[in-house]
Amino acid sequence: MSLFKVRNWWKTQCPTIEPAYDSFSLHCARLCIEEGEKDSLVVGSHSGQLCIYRPSGGTNLPDLDAEDDEQGSANGSANELAENVFQHADVILEVQLPLPVLGVSSGKFTTTNKTDPRLQLAVLHPMKLCIFQLVTVDGLADHGDHTRLVTLYDHALSKPAFSLSHGPFGGVKGRDFLCVQHLDGSLRFFEQDGISYERTLATDRYIPAPLHYVPRVDCFVTVAPSWVLECYRYQDVAEALETLRRHDPIWALCIGEYALDLQVHQISNTESVIVILGENNLLCVSDTGKVRFIKKLDYSPVCFHSFVTGWYWEPGARLMLAVVSESGSLLLYESDQIIWSAQLGHVPVAIGRANVAGLPGALVTLGPTGALAVGYLGSEPQLFRVPALNLAPFEIARCQKELLELEREIRAGVDPSDASIANAAAERDVQLEVAIQGEPVPCTEQQVTGLLSASEMCQLSVTVRVEPKLEMLQLTVATDQAIGCSKDAFLFRDVAAHSTERFDVWLYPTVPTLPASRTATVYCSYTSKQGITRVLERSVLLPVRLFLKPAQPSKEAQHKLTLTVVPPPAQHTAGSVLGRLFPEFAPEGSSASALALQPVAGGGDGRKVTIVAAKSTNRFRVQSDELGLMALVLECLIGRLQGRESVGHATEQDEAAGRKDHSSRVQVTIGGVPSVSGLIRSLQLHCDLRKAVKQLENDLEIATGQMRLFERRFVVKLQERSLRALDGILMLLKRNHTAVAKVCLQIKTMRQKLKLAQIDLAAILRLFHLCYSHAANAPGGKYLEHLTALLVHSVLDSTEQGYEEMMLPVVRFLHQTGPLKNSTDQSEATPFDEEFFYTAKQTDRDPVDLSAHSQLLQSQLQRLLGRVNDRITTATTARTSGSGSGRNSVDFEDQPLPEAHNEEAEEEEEENEKGQNEEANRPTDGSAGVEEFAQLSATASEWVNYEKMSDLPL
């Protein structure tokens, strides 16, 4: 933004207040209506309004040539009085034409009276060209003079017009001819004696561009669709095509971009210049095709105006250029050197220069909505005082209080009934149905069959019923990163009313591991004819057969979770529960009390998840050596226990349709939480792989730079015909090519590993989300809401920042504020970490330190989740101590299940104490057992010890 501002001298609003103006709508010229007049401002709009203004600026006009202080102060006050003054006498003419006005020009367009100094107006309509004469009628009595617009003649056009150009074509004197450019690039010439003819330029014209006439050389200049500035001689263009002597332009110059505007000026007796405003450059070319200068613009231009100060035959004539940027800045150039910059009050679409009464060389600007202003380059700077720095310490409590107050204001200003009404209307307008069709079939996708030969795919059917007519409708299928889709987006325009369409896509696993969730969500966003946008959402659960297959159950596992179901499933024997819950994996009539599931692809490495049912069928155990594999199985088990999922597939709408009552009656609680160390290890692996990928990308950049260097050197040696030196260059090229190929292969492999790490981390986050959501004694309300919102199972790394950089501010905020903060230890609630800001600083040269973000995120997340686990354990201990021994099942022996999140330490203790007396370490009463479980931070649960019993079917 410039320091100076363009001073306002006169302004008004055109009758049309809509965006109906462009760069061809403003024309500043002296119409010679009366003797000694100044320039008039002619404005034409796309709505048909034609207005002519002659600004007077009031009676007390400022003296712009005053130099002393007293006169300057007096002129300043007079300028304030004269500013923004609009008088009714400033309007010469306002008329409503029946057709839109595309362009306005003035000149000698008639031959009736050569001694008449008055000029005529040429108005271009889409299909007509009209010539008007301004006639002044003397007023009677006290009434003043008034001006009428008289139509002299008009020409009908056979094609839509684009622009208008005029000049003394052919070198005639005292007359001006007209040339209309059509949208297809053809030219229509009109002479004053009624002769009109149409010509087409040699090259193809797909995009019309500004066309101007150069009087000195009697040529036309325009920009072709190939971004080439071309110059055609009028005598060649005026001849018929049969006798055309020259098919090509007399000269052409590639400017490399589209021309926003083009103007022509004569700067000396022997030269005229063509000034072209491009999208990124400002060019000046002589009429012989030589480039005078090219100015690279570091801003986006909107419009410009060029003029010559002084007469062109004088040696002191200067070419001036005024360019307006999209930020509203006016930049004034003398040739290619900037000499002034000022800020406009608004961003105009057209700019001109006029000599008005009391202000020679005024700047005229026209806004997109008809705001017409006349101003001048003032030297009064825009006073801006830098505010004082707020050096007060950052207080988390005060910011949290302000945030809560803002949330209350937002909630008070938002009417929730409007959202419900809008959602109901969206459901009526578009009905979206999503379902899984048929059973899974063998996968036929080429990118999957080579990697996962035993994988299957299922068909997702999406049915859309549209009631009103829609402008646009888009369907998007969103799945987990480990699930592929044959086509994930559909886009339609101008959807007919009362139409129904069905779309089928295929979903299949793409990587040899389990996804974090098997939910496929279909988003339907549509825009009505009124411009209102709505979004609908439907979800469906994919068949579990796509990802899992049965395997041999295992006795022990590193990670174990306990599920308690109240009321228990209605079965007589413990062995038939898993067969009813997973009939696609358990054979019919099976009475097994354990079921093992492994991934369909990559299951040969021994990774599996085992589900064990207790004798009372009130409890289930999910155990595995891999945390990432437990999330999908645990989610499926909970859904089937609560009745929200049928065998094979289910939708989230089933719960609202008929199974909500059943799921509300069945409560599934999870005793214990997995070890936080598993999540920390996954975060560390994700960070290490990101660093490895970054290092390989840097190596590839270095190798490709060396390759380009060797190639340039090879070309130099080849031109020098130095055959002996080519052998060494060829050897370097081959070695470098091998290195580049090797690094590319390593990047591909490492990115695949990074993708698997992202999926595994997302699955672990989903597992923690399920455990906290179904914890036995987890506090509810905001506590659980903040916690589950933190554990979002979507891990994505963008080019700008990764998952650690995105999650670190969230974890730091929750660690210091809200219901999850540590209210006892105030030392952790530091406003910022100086070491982090110094080590993780990002500059243009130094990249972000990934390790600093990852280490800080791991430490903050470990303390946060550890504090949450302690609260859950405290609530569990209090509940256990109030109920005695806490044993409510007689189907299990007196052997407690080790704590879920500290099982490694417990197994080591059991191995060390195996040779000692177990009776001495066993508690004698219920209270001693409660104390032992409180120390272990786990709920009291009794399980069958399958190491000592033979009822596990192995």
Task: Summarize, please.
With 954 residues, this protein is an alpha+beta fold. The protein is built from 17 helices and 43 strands.
Explain this structure to me?
The protein is α+β, with helices and mostly antiparallel strands and 954 residues long. Among the domains are: 425-444 and 453-544, Immunoglobulin-like (Sandwich); 547-651 and 665-670, TATA-Binding Protein, CATH 3.30.310; 678-820 and 851-871, no CATH class. Helix content is 28%, strand content 31%. The chain is built from 17 helices and 43 strands. A 6-stranded antiparallel beta sheet has the order 37-39-40-41-38-43. A 5-stranded antiparallel beta sheet has the order 33-31-35-36-42. Strand 40 (609-613) and strand 41 form a beta hairpin. Helix 12 crosses helix 14 (850-882). The longest helix is centred in the last third of the chain and has 51 residues, at 723-773. The protein is elongated and about 115 Å long. The two termini are 78 Å apart. Mean pLDDT is 78; it is low at 61-82, 647-660, 826-832, 841-846 and 882-954. InterPro entries: PHTB1_GAE_dom, PHTB1_N_dom, PTHB1, PTHB1_hp_dom, PTHB1_pf_dom, WD40_repeat_dom_sf. One of its GO terms (cellular component) is BBSome. Residues 1-381 form the PTHB1 N-terminal domain. This is PTHB1 N-terminal domain-containing protein. Residues 875-954 are annotated as: Disordered.
